[in-house]
Amino acid sequence: GTPASSAEENSAMENIVTEKKAEASHRQDSADLLIFILLLTLTILTIWLFKHRRFRFLHETGLAMIYGLLVGVVLRYGIHVPRDVNNITQSCPVNSSPATLLINVSGKYYEYTLKGEISTIEMDDVPDNEMLRKVTFDPEVFFNILLPPIIFHAGYSLKRRHFFRNMGSILAYAFLGTVLSCFVIGLLMYGCVMLMKQMRQLDGDFFFTDCLFFGAIVSATDPVTVLAIFNELQVDVDLYALLFGESVLNDAVAVVLSSSIVAYQPQGDNSHTFEVMALLKSFGMFLGVFSGSFALGVATGVVTFTKLRDFQLLETALFFLMSWSTFLLAEACGFTGVVAVLFCGITQAHYTFNNLSAESQDRTKQLFELLNFLAENFIFSYMGLTLFTFQSHIFNPMFIVGAFIAMFLGRAANIYPLSFLLNLGRRNKIKSNFQHMMMFAGLRGAMTFALSIRDTATYARQMMFSTTLLLVFFTVWVCGGGTTPMLSCQRIRVGVDSDQDNPVSVLLTLIAEGSERRSTKQESAWLFRIWYNFDHNYLKPILTHSGPPLTATLPPCCGPLARFLTSQQAYENECQLKDDDSDLILSDGHINLTYGDVTVSTDATGAHTSSGPAYPGATGSDDLDRELTYGDHELVMRGTRLKHVCPCVSTIPGH
């Protein structure tokens, strides 16, 4: 044949080979994803078995990690990919490693992309490494896809009543505590690294800024396991609020702190000397990024103004996309998505939630709960997998031991001194057994992992990543598994306070604590009281359809503006105020409580009256106790609503 026809045959053959390769690669990718889906399925089935057997020692995240580890072992040591004969190693002297290469193969140009450096030992195992690399995700996947639902759900499902009641303490633990912990861990690790240098155990550079970075990422606590057990056992709500509030906010603080440490750049050649200006610049960046992200999150949370009540599916979809875009918008603007999406969640739960139709309210709650569950378990099973599939692990026994000691000392430096200082000003003291429990429950999890895997380029970062994995495994299995024994050891009461306050306990509390209510009012921080009144009278009516209409709260001179800003729905809702926060600040006005057909009102003095008998013979407040003991189950079934008494309603009619 002619040279032209043989060239055509060659190119046809090449096309067939390329198609086959593409198909094989597609199959391989599907198989890799299938591994993760099966891991999650296996985890869910085992959790069901555990819940069925009331087995509390291992939480689903710990389980996901164990399954991840097993699959990692199989992938690493059990499966070998045959060598591809077409792989050729050619040497070419180039001074730098370009991101893309154009290679001229007999007149045709091919583009190759850079995957990363491989050591000389790995030269023979290229196919195996390729397979392991396939099951290793791009860290950005964690940051942009798996982390937002977890953080948003934390803000969206925040139990605001207990959170705000302990607001000061939570902020102290989250801001001061995390910074303290970061510096304690950083200094201890620096000592450890200096010792390793003396003993010739270091093979690369390790600077003080690296140690501080390690301190920042290890300070992010994630006690999912502990909180799940607390929820199940109904542990004291204040302890739950302190732990949950701290873990939610300190994730945000740790992210901003770590990025500020990375941004620390002194002038001149030596970038690792101490310089006051560079330190102040980093501190300024910390404040700027945090407040910027906070403002962005709150702004998008408020802007999510859905008027699509008639089309629930569209409404839920818009709500979901707005929440996700907050994260990406903040990252694109150079702020921190984690902080933005957290405050967006809190704002949306407070305002936007009231504007959604009833169906969308349920839908969004369930949707974010599901996404949170899947993302969290995916990250934990992936953690188990990377212990074996990650290519550049550096396990240094001395560094690991140092990290464990530093982690516990850092946690202690966060909890004990701050609790002592907070107790000086708190009326409801943080008891010592609560402090020990908080110290014990400082688990490390998804956030620590996502921050450490984000950059594994240098020797120091690789060693940190390997150590971080071990810290997460240890805290989730040992501290998470030891939660129930620890609760009984510290004699912390369980089954005390369910979040869906039992109707009977609400009634009895209202009746017994009438006199105490004024002290509670004093206890609510004055700043928060001012904010609450402003929010209740002006912000909620503008941003939602709940709260009193503006026509009632604004001075008469602003009448036209108030009428313009008040929606028709707000007038309709006037007599049935849906205000979640009415129990944050107990005002001196009346509070009304309905159980099916009984209405109990308590006024500021704590006196109570009841109307509309629910059971034969139960007529007045004297018989209330008898009623409660006698119809307990029915009361619980009928449900409870705690309400402000509206001016236009004296008692709420029965069913």
UniProtKB/TrEMBL annotation:
GO terms for molecular function: potassium:proton antiporter activity; sodium:proton antiporter activity. One of its GO terms (biological process) is sodium ion import across plasma membrane. Residues 43-488 form the Cation/H+ exchanger transmembrane domain. Keywords: Antiport, Cell membrane, Endosome, Ion transport, Membrane, Sodium, Sodium transport, Transmembrane, Transmembrane helix, Transport. The chain crosses the membrane at residues 33-50, 62-79, 141-158, 170-196, 285-305, 317-346, 367-388, 394-413, 459-483. It is a multi-pass membrane protein. It is found in: Cell membrane; Recycling endosome membrane. The keyword Cell membrane applies. Its main location: membrane. The keyword NAD does not apply. One of its GO terms (cellular component) is recycling endosome membrane. Pfam families: Na_H_Exchanger (PF00999). It comes from the Eukaryota. Belongs to the monovalent cation:proton antiporter 1 (CPA1) transporter (TC 2.A.36) family. PANTHER family: SODIUM/HYDROGEN EXCHANGER, SODIUM_HYDROGEN EXCHANGER 6. NCBIfam families: b_cpa1. This is Sodium/hydrogen exchanger. It comes from Takifugu rubripes. The gene is slc9a6a.
